[in-house]
């Protein structure tokens, strides 16, 4: 569409130039027909190159200058066709290459000098010559200056169009980046919710199957824990899916978990059979929502990995230290560690690294030298 508009603009300009020439040569054509004087052909020859003043600016101006030289050699006085020089100067200043812009101005001043001597009819009075030159030079400079101003304005408009196009491209790119970041954030949240809840439910279900044969009362309690875990998971899933709905749907959203919910998370995993030692130093309630959620998800994902991969009869420790500058989270277990097989399907550690990257924090995750696995992260605290 833009290329088509540019083509139409060029065609309009070409037709306007042809129309201009047709209007200008109407007078000498009429005089040529009435008087039959061939000298009017010179006027037509001077005006005709203006039809190319935009498409072939330098060639058009050169043809006009050659016609003026013929006039100097044949006619001592000014002619109607001399207006072509002013229109040619405007065109060369507005549309010509940079070197031709200044060459055209110099040519115009040279023409003013020649015309001043020619039109003096051999009377070389200094005052007459000076007055004639100033008059002609002013006309030359005015025509050139109008063309140069039009050139400057066109360049300014083009720069504004380029800037607007660049801003539009930048806005589209920023929208894509923001969309990708939001999708990644929602994917991390859904992974943490689903992976954690299902891992707890699978472990509880295995325990319920074992307990149903020997201790039915314990199996009943385990089923209650599975039910509570499933309901909590559904609540968080509804909350995340509500972010993807229309604003008019007004979904009922529960508050996002935070650092203050870490003890409840640990207790939930204790109920599933995982032995966990929790150490907390510092106020968990004083953290902002983003930092608190990140700390919660780190503990959740690390303990979920312990539950899934560390093996049977494993124990874990959670150490959370809150300072004025950062939250330090360390989760250790004494499970298989480096001996754990990697199926290549997990995204938990990657999700932790992505969360920490958002806060410009630090994270270390890997087997411990003495056995087991360790996740250690430092999340900077947002200060107001």
Task: Describe this entry's structure for a reader.
By secondary structure, the chain is of the alpha+beta class. The protein folds into two domains: 2-168; 258-384, Histidine kinase-like ATPase, C-terminal domain (Heat Shock Protein 90, 2-Layer Sandwich), CATH 3.30.565.10. Helices cover 65% and strands 10% of the residues. It has helices at 2-24, 26-35, 40-47, 57-74, 83-95, 98-118, 126-214, 216-242, 262-271, 289-309, 348-358, and strands spanning 275-281, 315-322, 326-333, 362-367, 373-380. A five-stranded mixed β-sheet has the order 1-2-3-5-4, with helices on one face. Helix 7 crosses helix 10 (289-309) and helix 10 packs antiparallel against helix 11. The longest helix has 89 residues, at 126-214. The mean pLDDT is 77.
Low-confidence segments: none
Give the biggest beta sheet. Answer: 5 strands, mixed
Which structural class do the helices and strands define? Answer: alpha+beta
Describe the strand arrangement of the main beta sheet, using strand numbers: 1-2-3-5-4
Number of domains: 2
**N-to-C series of helices and strands:** HHHHHHHHHEHEEHEE
Distance, first to last CA: 49 Å
Describe the global form: rod-shaped
């Amino acid at each position: 569409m833009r290329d088509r508009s540019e083509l139409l603009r060029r065609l309009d300009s070409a037709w306007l130039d042809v129309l201009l020439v047709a209007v200008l040569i109407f007078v000498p054509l009429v005089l040529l027909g009435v008087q039959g004087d061939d000298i009017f052909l010179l006027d037509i020859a001077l005006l005709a190159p203006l039809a190319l003043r935009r498409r072939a600016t330098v060639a058009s101006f050169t043809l006009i200058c050659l016609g003026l030289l013929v006039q100097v050699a044949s006619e001592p006085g000014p002619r109607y066709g001399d207006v072509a020089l002013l229109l040619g100067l405007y065109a060369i200043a507005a549309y010509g290459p940079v070197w031709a812009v200044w060459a055209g101005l110099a040519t115009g001043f040279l023409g003013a000098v020649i015309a001043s001597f020619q039109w003096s009819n051999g009377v070389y009075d200094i005052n007459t010559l000076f007055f004639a030159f100033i008059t002609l030079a002013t006309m030359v400079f005015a025509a050139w200056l109008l063309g140069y101003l039009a050139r400057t304005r066109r360049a300014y408009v083009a720069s504004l169009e380029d800037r607007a196009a660049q801003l539009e491209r930048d806005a589209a790119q920023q929208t894509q980046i923001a969309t990708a970041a939001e999708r990644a954030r929602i994917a991390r949240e859904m992974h943490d919710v689903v992976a954690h809840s299902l891992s707890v439910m699978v472990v509880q279900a295995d325990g319920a199957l074992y307990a149903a044969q020997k201790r039915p009362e314990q199996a009943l309690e385990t089923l209650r824990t599975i039910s509570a875990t499933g309901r909590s998971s559904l609540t968080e899933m509804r909350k995340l899916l509500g972010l993807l709905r229309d604003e008019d749907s007004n979904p009922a959203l529960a508050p996002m978990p935070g650092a203050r919910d870490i003890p409840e998370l640990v207790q939930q995993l204790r109920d599933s059979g995982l032995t966990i030692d929790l150490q907390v130093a510092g106020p968990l309630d004083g953290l902002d929502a983003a930092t608190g959620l990140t700390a919660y998800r780190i503990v959740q994902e690390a303990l979920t990995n312990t539950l899934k991969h560390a093996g049977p009869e494993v124990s874990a420790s959670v150490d959370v230290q809150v300072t004025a500058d950062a939250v330090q989270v360390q989760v250790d277990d004494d499970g298989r560690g480096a001996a754990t097989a990697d199926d290549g399907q997990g995204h938990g550690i990657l999700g932790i690294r992505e969360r920490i990257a958002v806060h410009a924090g630090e994270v270390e995750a890997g087997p411990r030298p003495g056995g087991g696995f360790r996740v250690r992260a430092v999340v900077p605290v947002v200060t107001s």
